[in-house]
Amino acid sequence: MKLVISGIQPTGLVHLGNYLGTIKPFKNLQANHDTIFLIADQHSISSSYFKASSGQSISYNLISSIKTTFLTLKACGIKNLIFQSQVPELCQLAWILGCISSMSSYEKMSQFQAKKEALTGSSLAIISYPVLMAADILLFKSHQVLIGDDQREHLCLCQDLAIRFNSIFGEYFPIPQEILAKTPRIMNLRDASKKMSKSSRSESTKINILDSPDNIRKKIMKAKTDCIMEVYYDEVNRMELANMIRIYYGIVGEDIVEKEVRKRWKDVLEFKSDLCDVVILEMGKIREKYYEAVYEDKFEKDEEELVDKLKEVGRKNLEEIKKIVGFF
């Protein structure tokens, strides 16, 4: 079977956008594919320690966030979880890939430019982030990568690096292809021009998987919509409502059919009420499993046999790569 890889950074609480964009589609792929789901703990510190005067509170919060992310993913039904920091070969491969790529490839990337502007500067990790992401994918010789549309730029770089390596040293890496999640990007509940984000300071902009039913209902009922009461799908003129309609159909697993949308609800209030119900039901099942694991103190890194197997694959592949490039 083809190997599919995806991942998530353990920063902040996992939200509905992560769930519909990555977690739920990945869970569906597990039945018919070999899979690896990477908890990208190394990526998560690419900017957190930059300009920090003390790292103690940052490291404490990171440990807590990693545990929460791991247990949330397990509660969602994600298997074959591995921590990025458990595989040191990833950084070794990233160095090799960095040696065959140009600096300009990274400087031109839109996410680098945005982060550089937001931080008024850049750590080395921010500019080299994409090459470590490429190593995440290539070390295990992944065939397909589940990504959101905002990660396409990074995957294109990864494909270029694989092609470049193969052209220099002979065919080694498969060229990884994208799998785009069926559900379009889920946007901010207060401003549909921005994506739903863990880093948003306002909790009203996002629905976290672990939110209580009351909080979910409050956030949805207060979510921004226009003054038109009729419910219909219009991505251009009714961005906020269209975003909420995508959430509804992403949860129930159906395609959006405009005629059905118009018939289904008499007004926006009825639609929001139904949306509350389906989100609360879906998140409730996950939240129950999460708190059961917390109560029983079940945090432990995934099955040792699996992790050891993946580590061995990483070690074996890196040894081959080192010989190819001329290392002892």
CATH topology of the largest domain: Rossmann fold
Mean pLDDT: 90
List low-confidence stretches.
none
The level 1 CATH classification of the largest domain is: Alpha Beta
Spatial extent as radius of gyration = 21 Å
Task: Kindly report the name of the CATH homologous superfamily of the largest domain.
Answer: HUPs
Number of domains: 2
Identify the strand order in the major beta sheet. 3-2-1-4-5
| Element-level helix/strand string | EHEHEHHHHEHEHHHHH
Helix content: 40-55%
Q: Main β-sheet, in a few words?
A: 5 strands, parallel
| DSSP strand count | 5
Strand content: 5-15%
Which structural class matches the secondary elements? alpha/beta
Question: CA-to-CA gap between the ends?
Answer: 32 Å
**What coarse outline follows from CA principal-axis ratios?**
globular
CATH architecture of the largest domain: 3-Layer(aba) Sandwich
Helices, by number, come to 12
Architecture blueprint of SSEs:
Elements: E1 3-8, H1 16-29, E2 34-39, H2 56-76, E3 81-83, H3 89-98, H4 103-107, H5 110-119, H6 124-138, E4 144-147, H7 152-169, E5 177-180, H8 213-222, H9 239-252, H10 258-264, H11 268-295, H12 304-325
Parallel strand pairs: 1-2, 1-4, 2-3, 4-5
Helix pairs in contact: 2-11, 3-6, 3-12, 6-7, 8-11, 9-11
